[in-house]
Amino acid sequence: QVQLVESGGGLVQAGGSLRLACAASGRTFNIYAMGWFRQAPGKEREFVAAISWSGGTDYADSVKGRFTISRDNAKNTNTIDLQMNRLKPEDTAVYYCAAGYPGREAYKYNYWGQGTQVTVSS
Q1: Distance, CA of 15 to CA of 30 (rounded, Å)
Q2: Does the pLDDT of residue 23 top 80, yes or no?
Q3: How does DSSP assign the chain, residue by residue?
Q4: What is the pLDDT of residues 44-81, one digit of tens each?
Q5: Residues 42/93, Cβ–Cβ less than 8 Å
Q6: Rounded mean pLDDT of the chain?
């Protein structure tokens, strides 16, 4: 099993920034990518950003240019960050860290964190 622990959510005004972090532990040899999804009230969970262990990154169009996903460069570290800049009220959601295989589809990610709330006030 793989355990994912998220941190960094909170309340911020529109235009502000937040940084989310996610640390994976356990049987991490099964992980080939990690990513972030989000779910707003009354909406389906949606892809936000992902990074593969080969170094590739991918972003949803709605966050491209504002969010940056990165991996801790320390050796053998399975920790990713999501730097969120120029936040908008529509970014308000519960953000979930996920680990598994590269891609935008939720089914490619075998492991999920508990979620962290991000609220952007207007």
Answers
A1: 37
A2: yes
A3: -EEEEEE--EEEETT--EEEEEEEEESGGG-SEEEEEEE-TTS--EEEEEEETTS-EEE-TTTTTTEEEEE--STT--EEEEEE-S--GGG-EEEEEEEESSSS-GGGEEEE---EEEEEE-
A4: 999 999 999 888 999 999 999 999 999 986 655 789 99
A5: no
A6: 94
